[in-house]
Design goal:
With 302 residues, this protein is mostly beta strands. The protein has five helices and 17 strands. The protein has a five-stranded antiparallel sheet with strand order 4-3-2-7-8. Strands 12-13-14-16-15 form a five-stranded mixed β-barrel. A three-stranded mixed sheet has the order 1-5-6, with no helix packed on it. A hairpin with an 8-residue loop joins strand 7 (125-133) and strand 8 (142-144). 35% of the residues are buried.
């Protein structure tokens, strides 16, 4: 399973909804999120990187053909539902995917456009070049398209930022897209035997975490002020903390209590962030000799 909790484009401002009431200093240093979303009211306005078609493919995680089903409207975002027909790369087991977009205005260089509108026609097949974001707090992955692009072979539409997409002669669009990806980028997502194996493989850190206090409460998860103890995976000097040695950690509801200590698999939401997120729903463990041994063996054999 691929973990995409990092910032993967200038437009995907990584916000962790749990930190929406964080103090100004924290917000300036760490804007974070499990999935890209906008929590302002009345739509959004954002500046985005203007990609060439080749750059769009290069930065993407998955390209697939999907038949458009419906648009699901949230507070300030929409999810476009597609039934999956076939992947060019980045395949998963998903039969239906959800492409999320903010409702608002965007600027990419000198190009201005609106996002979150009704741009697809039900029943038609589209080629989607996407970035995939996974989150333990959502029922499904969130896919994002980082440009104003529309590709529908049924209507002979291949448009990026209002201009036709150019493909070399004697090469099909599919062949050209696949040729732009490195071999390692074409591999399918890693699949693990169970959630414990996934936690040990995907966590940047595994260690004892002291839960100091509740920092912010949300519908599906809470953010806690924490302090790290002994690490079973990861190097202590690479663990980003605030000046007092504390950090913030987003954890699923009802998994910890204030004042308690747990063995947790976790990763930072971005490279230099002091805010972390648990790896999966089973990565908060009671501290015991048996669990210690199991984690140490799994990490050594990784």
């Amino acid at each position: 399973m691929k973990k995409t909790i990092v910032i993967i484009s200038a437009v995907m401002v990584v916000l962790l909804a749990a930190c929406s009431t964080a103090n100004t200093e924290t917000q300036q240093n760490d804007g974070v999120s499990a999935v890209p979303t906008n929590h302002s009211t009345g739509g959004s306005s954002s500046e985005r990187t203007k990609y060439s078609f080749e750059e769009l493919v290069e930065h993407s995680d998955a390209a697939l053909y999907g038949t458009y089903m419906e648009m699901l409207v949230n507070d300030n975002t929409v999810d476009y539902a597609f039934s999956v027909n076939r992947f060019l790369y980045g395949a998963t087991d998903d039969e239906i995917i959800y492409v999320r977009a903010d409702i608002g205005d965007s600027t990419a260089g000198d190009y201005e456009y609106k996002t979150g509108g009704n741009i697809y026609e039900a029943g038609r097949e589209y080629l989607l070049i996407t970035e995939r974001h996974e989150s333990i707090f959502y029922e499904h992955d969130i896919y994002v398209i980082a440009a104003d692009v529309l590709i529908c072979e049924e209507t002979a539409t291949r448009v990026l930022y209002g201009e036709d997409i150019s493909v070399p002669k004697r090469v099909s669009l599919d062949e050209y897209i696949i040729s732009l990806k490195k071999p390692e980028d074409k591999q399918e997502a890693v699949r693990y035997g169970d959630s414990f194996e996934e936690m040990c493989a995907e966590s940047k850190f595994i260690g004892e975490i002291q839960i100091l206090s509740l920092y912010n409460e949300n519908e599906s998860w809470n953010v806690y002020l924490c302090k790290a103890g002994k690490l079973l995976k990861g190097e202590e000097y690479k663990l980003n903390t605030y000046e007092d040695g504390t950090m913030l950690m987003s954890l699923a509801k009802d998994t910890v209590t204030e004042g308690g200590a747990y063995l947790i698999g976790f990763s930072p939401v971005s490279e230099n962030s002091c805010i972390y997120i648990q790896t999966n729903l089973d990565s908060v463990l009671e501290i015991s000799a048996e669990i210690y041994t199991a984690v140490e063996n799994a990490v050594e054999n990784k």
